[in-house]
Design goal:
The protein is α/β, with parallel strands linked by helices and 222 residues long. It is built from 8 helices and 5 strands, in the order H-E-H-E-H-E-H-E-H-E-H-H-H. The protein is globular and about 50 Å long.
Length: 222
């Protein structure tokens, strides 16, 4: 049994790992026209975007994101601005980075980044989305809905579940976020925000169990 702000049982841990694995698309990466680093509380997105740029996977990188209640204190000048600065510190040339500083949700991340690229004369046919590990599937579904004529690949820091928990430092919060993102994967297609994706029965069972156990702080109102 593991302890943090709240005791997480072995069953809850196993259920969370199932959802964690489902959220990741496990795409085999290959060169893309551009990459979009999705803003969030996780600076690892910027670091991994920089690593992928240095490996030669894409020539142009967009960082997108304004602020949210969870990032305003950490990134007071906006997620995209801080991500850009971090990537430059890690060796990405400033001229390779485009900035989209206004988006406040994933749909806007995609739509506004597309506008920034178009304004720069870039019209990609292949797009690499870099996100938090548990946000790959939702970002994929959103991009497929809003930008259907572009091939979408997804990437995130290659962290094991344990290592990601240690990097965040709050087990309860991470489980809440896993559950919240899965709810969005399930519900957003009904609202026209994303394409529909199959949720395996065991993943859905794990999701419902964690909701019953109170991992609900990131759920949207039904």
């Amino acid at each position: 049994m593991r302890n943090d702000q709240r005791t997480i049982t072995e069953d809850q841990w196993r259920q969370a790992e199932q959802i964690w694995d489902y959220h990741q698309m496990h795409h085999e990466l290959r060169p893309a026209n551009v990459a979009i680093g999705l803003g969030s509380h996780d600076l690892g997105v910027a670091a991994h975007s920089a690593e992928l740029y240095r490996s030669g996977l894409f020539p142009t990188l967009v960082f997108t994101g304004g602020n949210s209640p969870t990032t305003a204190k950490v990134f007071p000048r906006g997620e995209a601005v801080h991500f850009r600065e971090h990537a430059i510190d890690l060796g990405v040339p400033a001229e390779a980075i485009l900035l989209e500083p206004d988006a406040t949700n994933t749909g806007q991340n995609i739509t506004l980044s597309r506008e920034v690229l178009a304004a720069a004369g870039i019209h990609p046919t292949t797009l690499l989305l870099v996100s938090k590990p548990y946000m790959e599937r939702r970002s994929f579904a959103t991009a497929r809905r809003l930008w259907p004529d572009v091939e979408i690949l997804c990437a995130s820091e290659p962290l094991e579940f344990d290592d990601y928990l240690k990097s965040i430092g709050d087990e309860k919060l991470v489980l809440d976020m896993l559950v919240g993102d899965l709810q969005r994967v399930i519900e957003y297609p009904k609202l026209g925000f994303a394409i529909e994706q199959e949720v395996p029965e065991d993943v859905h069972t794990a999701y419902e169990s964690l909701i019953r156990d109170g991992f609900t702080s990131r759920l949207i109102a039904s």
